[in-house]
Amino acid sequence: MIRIIVVHALLFLLPFIAYAIWLAVVRRSASAENWRDAPLLWLTMAGGLVVIASLVMLASFDDKNADATYTPMQFKDGQLVPGKLE
User: Suppose 12 and one of 41, 47, 54, 86 were both cysteines; which one would form an S-S bond, judging by CB atoms 3.0 to 4.6 Å apart?
Assistant: First the structure.
């Protein structure tokens, strides 16, 4: 669960990271005074859209084996048989 939260937090922060890189490259400074003029509303909306898009993609490309039954790993005839979906 923590992995999902961290991934979506990083996706939300992508526009802010891109803006910081743009400040560093174009203005040669990512100082606090440049961040005061930052379009925070637009960066926040862009981050939200990236997160929503990632959730839609996650739901769209969900595994098609959702109804399959998982057979766990078994020991048969002295051999270890890996688990599988049936």
Answer: 47
